[in-house]
Amino acid sequence: MRVFTLITASALLVPIFLPFGSAVMRFVLDEEITNCGNEDWMVDLTNFKLIIVNDTTTVANGTCILLTAVNTPWKLNFYGEQYERGHWMKKFERNFQDFCKNILKPGELWYDPFNKKLKGKQCPYNKNQIFPADEDTVYFDVSYMPPTFQGRWRFTIDGDLGCFRVRFDFVDF
């Protein structure tokens, strides 16, 4: 388990800012990416790791290898859940009927790292295609996180390539 400390400038971003104060928390990332589905993964993450470098930086290292070709439409759903009162409660979600149309869309969270690695190449992607990660910074902005986000979390990516999950905690410092 890797641990780092962060300070949140807590506010809730609806269409306007509603300040809630601030909190000092630690982010504790489970090192393992787990399978959350019944099917086999269609991507090999054996050599892929998320690494906390310091208080503000998390990086991705290693390789992702496609075990099948990815064609359009590429269905993908990702969501974050917080563990509350004995149940996982969904806090945010994005669904894509065709992620191929969004993978290199400017303004999206993943645009910069994906565009850099894919060099502008859209779907389809070939079986055995390798996507290297070499200390690529993972975007993680907590500047709008209220203190109510303290606790156990899991982030899930579910779609045509399988179901992947990362677990982490936000705890009082």
Low-confidence stretches: 1-21
Q: Any idea how many domains?
A: 1
Task: Estimate the strand proportion.
Answer: over 45%
Pattern of helices and strands:
EEEEEEEEEEHEEE
- Number of H/I helices: 1
Tally the beta strands: 13
Based on CA atoms alone, the radius of gyration comes out at 17 Å
Q: In the CATH hierarchy, what is the class?
A: Mainly Beta
The name CATH uses for the topology is Ganglioside M2 Activator Protein, Chain: A
Give a brief description.
Keywords: Signal. With 173 residues, this protein is mainly β.
Break the fold down into its secondary structure elements and pairings.
Blueprint: E1 2-8, E2 11-13, E3 17-19, E4 23-29, E5 34-35, E6 43-44, E7 49-52, E8 58-66, E9 76-84, E10 87-96, H1 111-118, E11 130-137, E12 151-159, E13 162-172
Antiparallel strand pairs: 1-4, 2-3, 4-13, 5-13, 6-8, 7-8, 8-11, 9-10, 9-12, 12-13
Task: Please give a structural write-up.
The protein has 173 residues and is mainly beta. It has one domain: Ganglioside M2 Activator Protein, Chain: A (Distorted Sandwich). It has 1 helix and 13 strands. The strands form 3 sheets. Strands 1, 4, 5, 9, 10, 12 and 13 form a 7-stranded antiparallel sheet that branches. Strands 6, 7, 8 and 11 form a 4-stranded antiparallel sheet that branches. It has a two-stranded antiparallel sheet with strand order 2-3. A hairpin with a 2-residue loop joins β9 and β10. The protein is globular. The protein starts with a strand and ends with a strand. The N terminus is likely disordered.
